[in-house]
Every structure is written in C-alpha cells, then in structure tokens.
Amino acid sequence: MIIREEPLQHLEIAEYLINQVQKGIIKAGQKIPSENDLCEQFHVNRHVVRQAIARLTNLGWVTPQQGKGCYVNCLPKPILYVLSSQTRFTENMETQGVSHESKLIHWEIDLPDLNEQESLQLDEREYVYRLDILRYINEQPLSITTSVFPCLELPRLEQHFDHFDSLYGILLDHYQLRPIRSHSMFQACLPTLKDTEHLKIPENIPIIRIESVMNHPSGFPIEYSVARVRGDMQKCVIEF
C-alpha cells in the first residue's frame, strides 16, 4: 500500500483499517493493530497513527480502552427505509419487524419562516405548528425531523400530544388526514450542535438532510418537513 504525504496519510491508514473490518479480517470485538505496529507497517510517526485512530473512533468503527488498545465495535446493520408518496416511518419499521419509537421533543406555534411560507403557500401572518420529532430504532436514535403544518388545517393539534407515539397516527385518527409526499430533496451536510446531542454523533460526521413537502389529498401543501438522518443507520430506497 502506498502512503501519501501528510495530511492524507492518516486518512489512508483509517481507510485501510475500515476495509479490514468490512472484509472480516478484523472482526467485531477484536483489537486493531497497536500504534507501534501501525507506525512500523506504514512507516509513519505516532502522530499520524493517532489521527487515523481518532478518525476511526469518530466514525464509530472502534472504541479505545485505556491501556488496552482499540477494539472494533459491533455496528448496526443499516435499516432499509422505503421513500414513496405514501411513506410512513411506523409502517416501514413494522414491515421489517424493527423495534421503533417516536418522541415529540418540542413543539410550538409560531409565524412561518420564508422557507415554510413558500413551501406551504402561506401568508407571513398565518401561524404554523412546528414539531421536532426524534425517532429511534432498536433503542438507538435514527433521525430528528422538524415538521411544520398550518394551524388552520389542524385545529387544536396540541390536544393530542399527551400520549404521542406517531404523528401520522394522530393525523389519521383525529383529522382523517393522510398526507401524500409531493417531493423530497436530499443533501449531505454536517449536523448542528443540537442535532449531535439528540443523535449521539460527533459534530464532524455528515448526516443526510431530507427536505420534503407533503400534500393534502385535495392537492394543496399541508406539511413541510426537514429530516436529519444518521447515514450509518439507514439506506433509503426510492420507489417510483
């Protein structure tokens, strides 16, 4: 293996070790080579090796143990998430037999920002509900989604938050409403500090940002949402 000049050396060492894990040469629970061994193998100094190990740690591949070395983590298999006009988190997870949970961690009534106005075709003086929903699979945080609805379309929505477990369950049970996805835009980006706290990830690890508009069955926009998803825990399938 050819090692480049700094600052790329540590990236190539990290990539080499990740490939060793992916191929099963180093298995979950096993220790990766020591700093001394890596220095000798790649003809680099200890600082470069420590940068490589720090990257593996930040990406979640290994966990350092004081005085013992670094051990490979047992990473969860990414969950398939089918994205279609009728996508529902609860139904997606139940179909796959995956343990899941949704928590409403914040809600407010507020005036819409410019994106919300444009996406929901609202006047700047029309109030909206803004909900932050944290979703889990197998007791691990998967995504946090901010969903925005016009207040006029969902009167007294907050009365149904006491035993929250499914946003679309509330919409269907109390408003006979099943929104239809109009479009979604995907973008890889870095998480905000608040998102790192909720998703339990380092601040330098990219996430998948999914910006979507959902329509009322009558055809007008009813929901604008921005989901921030851990890319290491989900594979998105687009259905046409």
Automatic annotation (TrEMBL):
Keywords: DNA-binding, Transcription, Transcription regulation. It comes from the Bacteria. One of its GO terms (biological process) is negative regulation of DNA-templated transcription. Residues 7-75 form the HTH gntR-type domain. GO terms for molecular function: DNA binding; DNA-binding transcription factor activity. This is GntR family transcriptional regulator. The lineage of its organism: Bacteria, Bacillati, Bacillota, Bacilli, Bacillales.
